[in-house]
Amino acid sequence: MKLQELARMLGAECVGDPETEITGVAGIEEAGPTEVTFVANPRYAMLAKTTEAGAIIVAPDFPETVSATLRTKNPYLAFAKAVQVFYQEPVYAPGIHPSAVVHPTAVIGKDAHIGPCAVVSEGVVIGDNATILPHAVIYPHVTIGSHFFAHAHSIVREYCKVGDHVTLQNGAIIGCDGFGFAKDEHGAWQKIVQSGPAIVEDWVEVQANSTVDRASVGETRIGKGVKIDNLAQVGHGSKVGENTLLCAQVGLAGSSEIGKNAILAGQAGVAGHCKLGDGVIMTAQSGVSHDVPNGKMISGSPAFDNRQWLRSTAIFSRLPDIVRQLQRAQKKGEES
After folding, report:
1. CATH fold group of domain 3-86
2. Predicted model pTM
3. Strands 304-305 and 297-299: what pairing?
4. Catalytic residues
């Protein structure tokens, strides 16, 4: 593909030889003369001077380089689109594999692909252009929108509702039982039936081995555009607002409420019944057990304001010296 054609597809300005042949994408340190790379983080800007890439996707104000450049306001997004241009995803032809089990009462939209050993249970309704890969299981009375993509071994449990353009990566489970138990008079834990469905709105992706619990009563709801990374846990009765990111190993206890456009970084944890506002950012391994207002960035466990946390952690390593100074001062005062 010529560079000018790639620029057109990405909506970028081409600066350099438009006839440069581009055959693929690569990282800035590995890219060769027929590959395109990108710079979105300032820490990699110096590598633009030494890269052998045929072209670099950069911001409009990026300095000129020896390599040709494709200039756009969002280099990272443009590079993501470039990857999509060159990566040939498998194509799954419409049809139902003979080993798949589809209940006679299930309603499947047009152009669906249902792979080997997949199961679609009674009363299920699935929209057009679904792709359900081997060993994926759709429990009874589930409703799913169009362009659903279920990778192998993903599961949607009974009575759950899934919107349009939802992707479930391998092992993702929507609507597994919430962790609900009550002690009886003998001190034994008795299971609380988890009767409320999980609701997943449009354009959500749930990645590998993550779980969205069903609720004991009411519902668990994942808002439009939410992205859930690998090995994350959304507890029963929780609500996650639109376009929020839950990164790897994030855990939300039951009845958590997360606002829109929030980011919970890896291994962050939220205690039950806590409410985090719109735009909140929790840095990695932070834990919170209180409500957090809109727009706050918090760190630590228990989490508090990020700037204060940074100052506190800087002081922490100096504490032994500070203690010794205090002890010397105290001893000097006693001697005098």
Report:
1. 3.40.1390
2. 0.89
3. antiparallel
4. 236
